């Protein structure tokens, strides 16, 4: 499922993070008012106020509970550190994902909210259940690269893809949503390197991607190469010239299709050379000049490839390991230093959670200066996740894979692990807020789950706005709760 964008640095994480500057804590005050009303789930009009206020402290600590708390973790259930004044969660009864909803009026503006529609999980999210009213742009995810310059249809047959893609574009157009498609992804980037290796190849590949877009009516192409110059899934073709050739591909695409939107999805660590060193702005000038949008995958910071558990998508990295100082703050700073304009950048927010099987039931604190975090724990493996988690088998390289440990965030509520108002845990789980990273987590005697809730999502949106970014996007549209996307949209456009 969502793991097509997972495992960012299975091989290269320590080296990639080595030159990263440590993110500094921020204190964010968010106050949002929106006029939404609900007499039944997701049937919104414009009558009742929803207020959202949160104050994220930069130097607070979790408070241990001598009585052990629920779940036997030895820490206070739902601990709050230096409790924020006047902090309330959104009073929104639209907590589930019932899709019999009245359309929310679009509010136009410079900033946009986008999402990735997982075509490979169309049975899990039929087009009829997609909340078009919450998004300005939706990208059909994901076409794949083929060695013969044709565009692949991932796990779908050609007929399945054709039917779904045409219906998707028509539905987007009918709801005033910009339809684009993505080529690449974790399992679909194997042939990028050879497809862009020469000028002749770039011309042919650019033509192929544009022809593919025009066939279905997509108005933009999102190139998600994981990763140029650096091995991703394990069997990608890789060349030292990949980054330069990728930029020349973008130039060719824009030359052939100037009216089409050109976006590229890039890693949280910035654009790197084959030695994992961050490239200077002078080496990515062409990309900065021709792409319309750079989408930052500000997630997958911790997973099965890191030595401890940790936040999937931290806002900051105050308590992180020295070799893994990746965060929302550092990612935005990297891309600005690499010469991209703020209005070119879009911040990625995960709609999925990641889980680990803990080594022991008690959580061990990590103390860094004035911070205390319980996020970083030893683990023994990755458990099965939710309904749409990866299953053990073989990947596109023929390598054995296990469970991904992924949950859709709305599944955590449906399973009873997280309360509907997102303030407490259940079914043996305790909900914690981690001031070091700005991200919550759930922990039981055996499992830790990292996720983003409405509060942390809105905090990221506010931070992106403060940096002048073009907008945010969710990966993917299945995962986040409707109330979370609504709150993000309100924060983004107000």
TrEMBL record:
One of its GO terms (cellular component) is extracellular region. Residues 34-98 are annotated as: Disordered. Pfam families: Glyco_hydro_18. It comes from the Eukaryota. Residues 111-494 form the GH18 domain. One of its GO terms (molecular function) is chitinase activity. Keywords: Signal. Residues 34-49, 75-86 have a biased composition (Low complexity). InterPro entries: Chitinase_II/V-like_cat, Chitinase_insertion_sf, GH, Glyco_hydro18_cat, Glycosyl_Hydrlase_18. GO terms for biological process: carbohydrate metabolic process; chitin catabolic process. Residues 1-23 form the signal peptide. Residues 50-61, 87-98 have a biased composition (Polar residues). This is GH18 domain-containing protein. It comes from Puccinia graminis f. sp. tritici. The lineage of its organism: Eukaryota, Fungi, Dikarya, Basidiomycota, Pucciniomycotina.
